[in-house]
Amino acid sequence: MASRYHEVYDGWKRDPEKFWADAAEAIDWYSPYDKVFDDDAGVYGRWFTGATCNTCYNAVDRHVAGGRADQIALIHDSAITGTIKKFTYAELKREVVALTSVLKNRGIRKGDRVIIYMPMVAEAAFAMLACARIGAVHSVVFGGFASHELATRIDDAKPKLIISASCGLEPGRVVAYKPLLDKAIEISRHKPDGCLILQRDQLRCELREHFDIDYADAVARERAAGANVDCVPVLATDPLYIIYTSGTTGQPKGIVRDNGGHMVALKWTMENEFGVKPGEVFWAASDVGWVVGHSYIVYGPLLHGCTSVLFEGKPIGTPDAGTYWRVISEHGVVALFTAPTAFRAIKGQDPKGEFIPKYDLSKFRTLFLAGERADPETIKWAEQKLNVPVVDHWWQTETGSPMTINPAGLGLLPVKYGSPGVPMPGYDIRVLDDAGHEVPRGTLGNVVVKLPLPAGCLPTLWNADQRFRQAYLDEFPGFYKTADAGMVDEDGYLYVMARTDDIINVAGHRLSTGAMEEVLSAHPDVAECAVIGIADTMKGQVPLGFVVLNAGVSRETGVIESEVVGLVRERIGPVAAFKTVVTIKRLPKTRSGKILRGTMQKIADKEEWTMPATIDDPLILDEITAALKERGIGV
């Protein structure tokens, strides 16, 4: 079908208020808004001022009342424990209401904060929805995060209660959460009133008297008593949640998400951007601790009346590189959203895609990739093996939903490899030089969004309006700074080349490490790669490449490395000064799959570095250090 994208985007540009007013009709409101957008409210304006609503009502209750009571709302698929649990919308409502009653009995009221420190279990979603039901503000902290990181979030959000579990599960190991939680509370200045603990059979924990409450017991009591808690109306501009993202100063930034604009934006994206209809099965293979989990495991699919998959497992090793295809086949998934890292891991383990034909993927229509740059080779591999459109897209924790995408629901546009698509309604994306002037099409610069930001984006940082201005608005007045570098081509497609700090300066030439990584990943033996800039006395900086080879590759690494260097010289040119590639067993990553390039660079440059709180496996950094030393780098 011909894409309606240009017509819809132009319609938004002509009349933004009408666009968002139309989109808001898909949400049930208790009372209407005074203004669609009030530019005098908040830091840069607020959406749907004066309206009252409730996010839990829109995600759960209205579906139960509207004919979806017996439809599956949530599937908890744990590849690690080998268990699957399904909840209809009616059962979801029962679980959420019982938990809400527990919270209410513990004195939680509208505006109070609750930290959720949970593994990938259905109860994490229940907890988010229970907070939303009474207007409490939840802050989900990735389960297993280090005590210090959790403590900084406790001190910033000042929660009355923490909801946690005895443990989380990783392939081959159990992560005890309770000692981490106890230590965090001990070192934090703010003390919560208590903790609600979900005991998991894999590792139970001691509960402290008069402080820790057994989640299952407390919820069962409320359920047995027939507890009923109605949804509490909140203002559209009231906060739904706070999600913390790493701050450059070490103090995490509390991104605030409102209730009204968030619902309107997410509901619109499900059909128009992801091309998914109510009643269909949508799977975001992420974690509830990250923004993708908030937007597309919990809120987006449920607001839209879909069935959402909450998956506890990994793309490989639980038990093999076919686990994603098993989930898609078993649950009839129509669209999967995951990080490119996951697909690089699958491709590295199963380069020929031999697991794919073992499963029935007949319902599967679209693969969506986001979270970091999706290199063209990975996209092409997925297209070829799965025979479905592969849609790269780009957004941030701050925005809550895609800024650019190739919109499946409006009709796909031609694919341009290396581009995460075109701007979505609400996003007037520009590229500026460092002085704030627009650069010509095709020129690399700072990617910014013209204010106001659309519905669903952060209105500010938690209790930190001034920090919000400094971090995002001050550098380019009238624009939101994404801190990404990129360019827009003559057809309006965006190319995000790197975070602005991943642009390296080689003898006065500004070069993108992302463009070099694209070349490295094009080598047939390379499963994953990273390029960093390291200090050089002559040129200021020179690039250094790291490659992880595909499973089963037996060729000499030195030969592969010189082929990779030759490829960069051929495709980017001698200007890149690309001479060194180091073969390693694995790349250091955060638990959400982002490569820790900054830490690798510090090791190579012999700078002081601290262990990143979000690292998946600290031992990898020792392997990197040893591999660099062998080459005389970082010694």
UniProtKB/TrEMBL annotation:
Pfam families: ACAS_N, AMP-binding, AMP-binding_C. Residues 64-452 form the AMP-dependent synthetase/ligase domain. Keywords: Membrane, Transmembrane, Transmembrane helix. The keyword Transmembrane applies. It comes from the Bacteria. Residues 516-594 form the AMP-binding enzyme C-terminal domain. InterPro entries: ACAS_N (IPR032387), AMP-bd_C (IPR025110), AMP-bd_C_sf (IPR045851), AMP-binding_CS (IPR020845), AMP-dep_synth/lig_dom (IPR000873), ANL_N_sf (IPR042099). The chain crosses the membrane at residues 114-136. Residues 5-59 form the Acetyl-coenzyme A synthetase N-terminal domain. Belongs to the ATP-dependent AMP-binding enzyme family. This is Propionyl-CoA synthetase. The lineage of its organism: Bacteria, Pseudomonadati, Pseudomonadota, Alphaproteobacteria, Hyphomicrobiales.
